[in-house]
């Protein structure tokens, strides 16, 4: 029994053990696993002079979401994706849009639980552990910064075309300058830095500008859809709807997902929302519905109006209207395209500093990224660094070079969030908890393997075994008991909905070009190296850091979780109290017995000496 007490309390001091045995329970456990942590309030922020300002209502969130999702995808990427799928890109957009609902609900559930500016990073950090959380944040840097760079690059290509309508000629070196084989866009970099300066004035001022350009964006896309219906030409000789067959539909899904990849970025404004538990899930759903209608409509009119060769550039929507419609329509599309791309770029530049802010709070990156300006309540340093990085990528990288990599990382992160919801639904203390985590990891690997086997036409038995394994894992998770957490919104039909979403996104990820996979894997390896060089040692969860050993209060554990741990520890201590009392009584009896025996021996010796 004494050995058992030593094992249970070996991580506590003698005073703590005494307090526990007397009923005064220690406030928090001493060690927390990095890989199995499930604390949904891990990323919390000090509200005294450092928290982000709560200024966003449902109206603001809705327009921010529209800005995130309707940008380069609608105005440029559709034309590039159509080169792979052909006119059947219409079906591709519809399928990908519907699949996004399978990840919309998991994001909404996490947003209702965790009011954090880190969105995907914070969600995976809290459900799947520190390492996966760090790698997610590492990928989000590329998704947000490179995604914004794509918008800036497309915007720089649209502006000269718009000015040419009024007879104003812009020198080519300003927006497209060939330097040692690199196509440099000086105009794109300047636009990014100007918007970065706007971000420094504060969230309220930035959203006011964003609301105006978002309204112009919606009006322009609506105009393009309705006007384009009158110029549809399906009787041309080169029109073949299923030109590349079913495989073409799936081949275009990877780049098509880029057109929807921004809707989840809305959750990074959770900390600045006035009523996040209600407004974030509602705005996410509305934004996704708007994105499906607008992207699907634009894809339909573009592919039915003009040949694919016309839209094979970074200003595909404007090129189609220039080729088929009157000049005044092209002018309207130019103005709307600039406003839409500007809104999408500003929303992307708003998201990235908040990811830096959340990671810095968890000590994954240097603390300087979480410094808040006391006047504007904006993380100034994070905003400036995000703007400089985005401007650099905008100037030196073209759209088709980074578009596939951004889509691939966005697909992998969305699949991880789906699996994170499943992991979070099962209690950490359950005996099957580790098996659930391992099952989800195997599910992720098998889904990716099945996608490669199907897309690259491997032997049917390989795909069949992978599908059987996926099905078996689903049924195993389905029969396990879930925990009930009272929140305003929860994902329906868990684990069915999130696992279907993860499976579909990983199948789509397998269709992306292998070059993008290589770049993504290299980037993830860099993330591993940076984590073990800095994040692992500086993390506030590192048990070897003195701050973490002396006090775990930095973690801001949920009060309910702490109370549960207190109660469990108290019951465990009370169960050992009778055993300790029994051992103490036995020790006293043995001491008394030993004293009596000693007295008898002493008298015998004295008698012997006397004789």
Model description:
The protein has 611 residues and is mainly alpha-helical. Helices cover 69% and strands 1% of the residues. Strand 1 and strand 2 form a beta hairpin. Helix 6 packs across helix 21, helix 8 packs across helix 17 and helix 11 runs antiparallel to helix 16. The radius of gyration is 30 Å and the shape is elongated. The N terminus is likely disordered.
Give short descriptive properties of this protein.
single chain, 611 residues, mainly alpha, two-stranded antiparallel sheet, 2 strands, 69% helix, disordered N terminus
Give a topology summary:
Elements: H1 2-8, H2 14-21, H3 58-69, H4 72-85, H5 89-99, H6 101-113, H7 120-128, H8 130-165, H9 172-175, E1 177-179, E2 182-184, H10 186-199, H11 203-228, H12 245-251, H13 253-256, H14 276-305, H15 316-324, H16 327-361, H17 380-396, H18 399-424, H19 433-455, H20 460-478, H21 496-509, H22 514-538, H23 546-550, H24 559-610
């Amino acid at each position: 029994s004494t050995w058992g007490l030593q094992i249970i309390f070996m991580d506590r001091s003698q005073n703590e053990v005494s307090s526990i045995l007397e009923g005064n329970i220690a406030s928090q456990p001493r060690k927390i696993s990095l890989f199995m942590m499930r604390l949904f309030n891990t990323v919390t922020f000090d509200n005294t002079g450092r928290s982000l300002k709560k200024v966003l209502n449902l109206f603001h969130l809705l327009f921010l979401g529209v800005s995130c999702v309707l940008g380069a995808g609608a105005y440029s990427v559709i034309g590039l994706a159509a080169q792979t799928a052909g006119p059947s890109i219409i079906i591709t957009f519809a399928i990908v849009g519907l699949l996004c609902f399978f990840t919309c609900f998991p994001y909404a559930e996490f947003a209702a639980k965790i009011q954090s500016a880190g969105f995907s990073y914070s969600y995976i950090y809290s459900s799947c552990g520190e390492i996966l959380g760090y790698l997610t944040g590492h990928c989000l840097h590329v998704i947000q910064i490179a995604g914004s760079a794509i918008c800036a690059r497309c915007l720089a290509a649209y502006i000269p075309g718009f000015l040419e309508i009024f007879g104003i000629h812009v020198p080519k070196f300003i927006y497209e300058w060939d330097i040692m084989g690199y196509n440099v866009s000086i105009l794109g970099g300047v636009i990014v830095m100007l918007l970065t300066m706007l971000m420094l004035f504060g969230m309220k001022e930035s959203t006011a500008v964003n609301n105006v350009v978002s309204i112009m964006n919606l009006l322009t896309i609506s105009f393009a859809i309705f006007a384009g219906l009158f110029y549809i030409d399906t009787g041309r000789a080169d029109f073949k709807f299923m030109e590349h067959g079913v495989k073409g539909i799936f081949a275009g899904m990877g780049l098509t997902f880029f057109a929807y990849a921004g809707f989840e970025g809305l959750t990074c404004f959770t900390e600045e929302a006035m009523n996040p538990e209600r407004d974030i899930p509602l705005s996410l759903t509305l934004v996704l519905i708007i994105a499906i209608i607008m992207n699907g409509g634009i894809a339909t009119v573009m592919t039915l109006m003009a040949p694919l060769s016309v839209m094979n550039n970074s200003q595909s929507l404007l090129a189609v209207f220039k080729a088929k419609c009157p000049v005044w329509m092209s002018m309207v599309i130019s103005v709307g395209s600039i406003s839409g791309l500007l809104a999408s770029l500003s929303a992307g530049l708003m998201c990235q500093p908040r990811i830096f802010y959340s990671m810095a709070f968890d000590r994954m990156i240097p603390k300087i990224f979480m410094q808040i300006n006391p006047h504007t309540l904006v993380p100034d340093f994070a905003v400036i660094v995000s703007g400089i990085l985005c401007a650099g990528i905008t100037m030196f990288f073209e759209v088709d070079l980074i578009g596939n990599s951004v889509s691939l990382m966005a697909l992998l992160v969305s699949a991880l969030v789906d699996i994170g919801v499943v992991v979070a639904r099962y209690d950490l203390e359950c005996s099957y908890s580790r098996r659930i985590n391992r099952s989800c990891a195997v599910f992720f690997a098998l889904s990716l393997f099945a996608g490669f086997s199907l897309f690259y036409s491997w032997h049917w038995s390989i795909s069949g075994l992978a599908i059987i394994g996926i099905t078996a894992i689903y049924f195993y998770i389905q029969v396990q008991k879930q925990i009930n957490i009272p929140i305003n919104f929860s994902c329906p039909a868990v684990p069915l909905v999130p696992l279907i979403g993860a499976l579909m996104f990983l199948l789509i990820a397998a269709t992306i070009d292998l070059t993008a996979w290589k770049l993504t894997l290299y980037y993830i390896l860099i993330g591993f190296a940076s984590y073990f060089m800095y994040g692992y040692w500086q993390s506030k969860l590192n048990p070897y850091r003195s701050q973490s050993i002396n006090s775990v209060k930095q973690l801001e554990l949920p009060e309910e979780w702490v109370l549960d741990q207190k109660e469990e520890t108290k019951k465990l201590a009370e169960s050992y109290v009778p055993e300790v009392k029994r051992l103490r009584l036995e020790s006293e009896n043995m001491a008394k017995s030993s004293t009596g025996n000693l007295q008898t021996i002493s008298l015998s010796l004295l008698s012997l000496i006397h004789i």
